[in-house]
Design a protein that fits this description.
This protein is of the alpha/beta class and 261 residues long. It has eleven helices and eight strands. Helix 2 links the parallel strand 1 and strand 2. Helix 2 packs across helix 4, helix 6 runs parallel beside helix 8 and helix 8 packs parallel to helix 9. The structure holds 3-methyl-2-oxobutanoic acid (KIV).
């Protein structure tokens, strides 16, 4: 097995000019599949809310839910850097709250945490406590109600505010930063201004790496967003397989002799 990936190794890869490939995963099965792909970073995103738990956004996701799914995914992830999201309402109130929440995710197996926005005191305090932090700026989904939807941020003159936010997150001690749904030229400007790697999702080709939701990559989500590319059509393939099973049960084709004792 290749070397275990750590937060310092991610920065090292970036210094060498290597692109960083990241995927989300939410349980042991998908954690194993993502790890076996050789991805550098596996994130238990709070996209858990929309992707797995059926919520309409990440806002309702709780720390307990993140802890449970982090503990499960941990079982499947051996090599990639294993990162978990601090959900909405578990770090914004105070520095102490953010450290306590980050520690809960670390106890469940996270090797780093990610948080959204310019919570620079919180980032510095979590790093000081001994846990690497990944930042996240641009379209930060926990603020969907403020943005009025999942809309591209940083267009036109507001681009500079995203650049400034990214710089402040870096200065607070983040080892990498997610750039979500921002114009490619703004992501390029940020990538050129920062020393830490930028990880794009809807941030264009100039980012230092990319992250995608594993369900989108596999085609499990029949209506993926524009920034995603389907590498297979798992949604259709799974329904076809399950329909065949249902049909076989009804017509007496399953179980066969091979499945009987
Ligand atoms: O929650 C999530 O999955 C994320 C990534 C898509 C960056 O934050």
């Amino acid at each position: 097995m290749a070397d275990k990936i750590t937060a310092p190794l991610i920065r090292e890869k970036h210094r060498k000019g290597e692109k960083i490939a990241c995927l989300t995963a939410y349980d042991a099965v998908f954690g194993h599949l993502a790890d076996a792909s050789g991805a550098d970073v596996i994130l238990v995103g709070d996209s858990l809310g929309n992707v797995v738990l059926g919520y309409s956004s990440t806002v309702p996701v709780t720390l307990d839910e993140m802890v449970n799914h982090t503990r499960s995914t941990r079982v499947g992830v051996k090599r990639a850097l294993f990162v978990s999201d601090l959900p909405f309402g578990t770090y914004q109130s105070s520095v102490a709250q953010s450290v306590d929440s980050a520690v809960a995710l670390a106890k469940a197996g996270a090797e780093a945490v990610k948080l959204e926005g310019e919570y620079t005191d919180q980032i510095a305090a979590i790093v000081k406590s001994g846990l690497p932090v990944m930042g996240h700026v641009g379209m930060t989904p926990q603020s969907v109600n403020l943005f009025g939807g999942f809309k591209v941020q940083g267009k036109g003159s507001s681009g500079q505010s995203v650049v400034d936010a990214a710089l402040r997150v870096q200065d607070a001690g983040a080892f990498a930063i997610v750039l979500e749904l921002i114009p490619a030229e703004v992501a390029q400007q940020i990538t050129e201004a920062l020393e830490i790697p930028t990880i794009g999702i809807g941030g264009g080709i100039h980012c230092s790496g990319q992250i995608q939701v594993i369900h989108d990559v596999l085609g499990l989500n029949p209506k993926p967003m524009k920034h995603a590319r389907q590498y297979m059509k798992a949604h259709d393939a799974i329904i076809a397989a399950l329909s065949q099973y249902t049909e076989d049960v009804r017509t007496g084709q399953f179980p066969g002799k091979d499945n009987s004792f």
